[in-house]
Amino acid sequence: MSEESATTNNVSRRNLLRLGAAGGAGAAVVAAQGWAGPLLAQKGLLSPDGAFAASSTALGDLLFYIEAFPTSPLILTPFKDQLPIPKALAPTPAVGDGFTKGYTEWSDPPGPGQGQQSSFKNERHQIWPNTIGSPDPVVYKIDLLLRQHAFTTSQVLPIDANGRPTISFDEKRKTYPAGTKRMLPLSTIYGFNGQFPGPMINAEYGKPALVRFENHLDENPLNLDRQDFGSPDWSFLTHLHNGHTAPESDGNPHYTMVSGPKYEGYMPQTFCDNLYLNWPAGNDDREKQSFFWFHDHRMDHTGSNVYKGMVGLYPIYDPKNGMDMGDERQGLRLPGVRKDNPDGSFDVDYDIPLAFYDCRLDDGVTMHKDIHDVQKEFPAAKNPAKHPEWWGKTFYKHFPNHGFVGDIFTVNGTANPVMEVKRRKYRFRFLDASIARIYEFKLMSSTKGPKSSVSLGYKGDELEGQYRIPDAQQCMQFTQIASDGGLLPFPIKRDSFELWPAKRREVVVDFSRYQDGTPTTKGDVIYLTNVMKMPNGRMWSNSSRFAPDPSYKVPMIKIVIGDDAPDDSQIPVKMRDLPPLPGNWQTMLDNRLIFEVERGSGGGETEWLINGKPFVPDTVATSLKNRAGRSPLAQQKKGSYNLWEIRNGGGGWVHPFHLHMEEHRTVMRNGRDVTRGGDKSHPDDVSREDLVALDPGESVIIYRGFRDFVGPYVAHCHNLAHEDHAMMFGWEITP
Amino acid sequence: MTAVPAGTANWSSSGTGAPAPARPAVPWLTIIPLAAMMAYADGFWMVSLRGAVGAIERTQEPFASWLRESTVLLPAFVLAVIAAVTLALRWFGPLLAGKKAFLTTALLVAAAGTVAGTVILAASEAWDYALQHDLMGSLHHASSVQSVEQLDQASLGLQLTAFGYGVGLLLVTNLVVTGWTVAIRGGRLDVSRQQKATPRRTPRRAVTGRARTVATDLRQTLAAVALFGSAAIHLAVIPDHLSHWVVASAFFLALALAEVAGGVLLLGRPGLNVLVAVAVASVVPLVLWVWSRTSGLPFGPNSNAPEPVGLADVAACLLELGTLVIALVLLRARRRETGEPERRTAASAHLRALAVVGAIAIGSLGVAGAVPGWLGELPSSGDTTHSVTH
């Protein structure tokens, strides 16, 4: 070869290498823009920091936090079980009837005296109703009981993550071959009065309620296997979410660690009297709410206790001027026909609470293993281990690094229920009682009906929800009338709405006609459908706001149109005014308190932090440095108001951040004033709420008051896996 | 690839036909891109790993952290790549002959970058673990069954796992990055380059005379670089000391100025007085440092209280120690008025670069360690000082 040709070859080879390297880099950039860019944008991570967050998350998922979740067996005949519609709990009479004791006959009767607030006899109720001009409370008694619950009566087909039939087991570990149809065993629950959901208390403003929660979880009359979740010491702590309540009745671990039991919760054979004054903050009618729920709040085990059944309902009506008293002939004339019961309670027809809860059932071959096993909290389970004897019962993981979501969606404790409705308007009170799942609901109709996700060829996470309606189309709208904080100033027509953990939304649906005006006819079928795909507890992958997936339409309730019925209800034009914001609220911005929720890695199970700190239950947290250069304590004077900022520290997670005691109003989201019109993604910003919905990277500034009570409270993420692993802080109101 | 037939790998027989140079020089155009690519690529994984398992205090603003830390640690990667090419130079000569030499050199470069990255990763993970340990110590879930020891164990296990995966990630990344960088340079992977031609002279005299000059230059240059590095670190700690002890700030300023002056003088023809002054400027802060870190200084706001050892002061001490040793060697040589024995090797320029870049790397780490929130102490983001406990 001549020198010249060698040189020529060298040059071409060099250029070839250069071109190859440049082309490879170019292809990587194009791929990043075309594939990773939209993916990051969908998760709110399209920023330099977001790219690192996504990379860290991917590393964590791939290398460090490998977790297996079971695939629940397929429910074979969905939409046959009736939707349970709870009836109001009867109060305990003052004097018994020979079968049950009246509350005045209890050995420790409730009352305003010192030592009468709990079995610890070391506290008293901060405000007894007579001091605010209310009558003595209506008394209820709710026992915490170890019982069982069925999510369906249908036969099931055990399937694996690929949707293929697989083996199953019974309580004696006997193996059943793949393809065997089975009935599910009953799941073990810790329930309020032993039921799931627990009882519903229909409350009224002006009529205080005192609920004695008594712990009998140590009693096991049915000789049930407790499995490996739920507070290991069987303690409980009940929080009325989000009652305007004194700390001793609030059910928060900041209080219980410094007062009362001085422990994370109330142990077996102890009781606690929670006094709910049913009295609005500041005695301001504009602060009245309409739908609470009560749930467990035991420190470090809230998620497992709630998942194990500690959920109860607490609609609250406003009889003042008949405004919202459950009688559609009075006041705002919202749907509801009230029936007063002889026992002092009342029920309201056409006014239906819907508690959504997702779960996973054990497949018998998934390893049970998390940090709580290392800590030997459940020694009988001998984890890490597989538990074929628990096949078909609820499966739980305390410390899911990806968050915990179920693949069976239930409403009022029943999977895939059916409900027949009259051709008239209904009021529905939606509650998300799930650990982490966010839902987005639509009302849809279909000609072909639901198909199992397995039959449609889906696998893995796509099986969540078990059924889809491929041809479903929206057919009705919701009229939203209330959010967490009660009735809105005016109704809002919505095609769909999101429901985050612990949030409540109330809607009116007119089943007499479709959204195009066509009348419904008897036998028509409508599906309440979830269109938000959330494969894990981190956040959604698809929703109407971010990359909708038109094929993800999971039927939650089959609604069958029935007969005509009288309907005296109306959809009002105007409802409850918002409490006014001070004209100078922007001058308070510099001195606001700032709390950033973030994923950390404290080792063990301390992974979710606020302002870089884990929850220390006997401590009041401190704000990050604000624009005034100060880091104030989370301490507010009684009767004061302030701005608090809650920031999502990123990492591709969403956080439903809940603040106890009073409702707040969002004034700024991501640096933008939303007081004159909410963010399009968060239309409820114009209402009062007790939970801040934080998309990835978002920052929200809220205005809130601190009235009527003093003492310790908490604020925390209501993704219960986050709350249980330190994403909570203590704050307090001082005299 | 800059290849010549096997067995002819020396400058005199290179295919370029150029006259044989006296010594091979450092191929900076090869070293800097390779080091930079590896520094920033490895930095990406280190910051990402930290986001997954690291201490939360260090996971804020990851993009800025990556830029800052990768830049600060760039000299360490330069050092590693120089070490690799120096070794290759010794093994294969100034020109890489054949695929084996080329591939081995490329692997050496990737391996050296990985060693640098691994050391940095280990330090980073250790720091994360220390911070997490402190955090766990602050937890007091009194009645919870979990113990700090259990959490500690879990945290340590996680960090060790992360370290194992991290090393693998760095190795693969550095192999890819080295390959890509060599490819984008048209296949060039030089272990040396020709120095500019120098006038011919009698070979032995020329070599001997040059070697002596180079040896002297190396020691003086190294000491000067170390002094400049120390000065930079001392200047960097001034703002942090201003708030609580102005006297210390003034001392560090005076010391930094003295070190800069000493460094400049060392680059010329230093006399005995200069060498003595340099030795004093090195020994005084060393003594003060040992004193302050053991029994504590008897004056100042925290008198008689030992100060904690930090990255910045350790780096400064290393540089001062090096300067002191060189100053003493030079003083001794000056007194004897004898030259150094001939130490000429084919890689002497490489060794000189190794020494100087090593000093720069230490200085760079020290400066970064002196700035709160960079590699050193972190500002408090929470309620460390005044939280209310019931």
Brief descriptors of the model:
heterodimer; A: 735 residues; mainly beta; Immunoglobulin-like; eight-stranded mixed β-sheet; seven-stranded mixed β-sheet; 7 helices; disordered N terminus; B: 390 residues; mainly alpha; 2 domains
Compact description:
The complex is a heterodimer of chains A (735) and B (390). By secondary structure, chain A is mostly beta strands.
Describe this structure as you would to a colleague.
The complex is a heterodimer of chains A (735) and B (390). The N terminus of chain A is likely disordered. With 735 residues, chain A is mostly beta strands. Among the domains of chain A are: 62 residues; 274 residues, Cupredoxins -  blue copper proteins (Immunoglobulin-like, Sandwich), CATH 2.60.40; 150 residues, Immunoglobulin-like (Sandwich). In chain A, 11% of the residues lie in helices and 31% in strands. Chain A is built from 7 helices and 46 strands. With 390 residues, chain B is mostly helical. Chain B has 2 domains: 183 residues, no CATH class; 165 residues, no CATH class. In chain B, 69% of the residues lie in helices and 2% in strands. A two-stranded antiparallel sheet of chain B has the order 1-2. Chain B is flat. At the A-B interface, helix 1, helix 2 and strand 36 of A face helix 1, helix 2, helix 3, helix 4 and strand 3 of B. Strand 36 of chain A pairs antiparallel with strand 3 of chain B, so a sheet runs across the interface.
Shape of chain B: flat
Which series of helices and strands of chain B comes N to C?
A: EHHHHEHHHHHHE
| Number of domain modules of chain B | 2
Quaternary structure state of the chains depicted: heterodimer
Mean of residue pLDDT values of chain A: 93
Most residues in contact: chain pair: A-B, 63 and 58 residues
CATH architecture annotation name of the domain at 74-347 in chain A: Sandwich
The secondary-structure class of chain B comes to mainly alpha
**Hey, roughly how much beta strand do the residues of chain A contain?**
25-35%
The class by helix and strand makeup of chain A works out as mainly beta
* Spans where pLDDT lies below 50 across 5 or more residues of chain A: 1-6
The pLDDT mean of chain B sits at 81
Q: Count the DSSP helices of chain B.
A: 10
The CA-CA distance between the termini of chain B, in Å, is 71 Å
CATH class of the domain at 74-347 in chain A: Mainly Beta
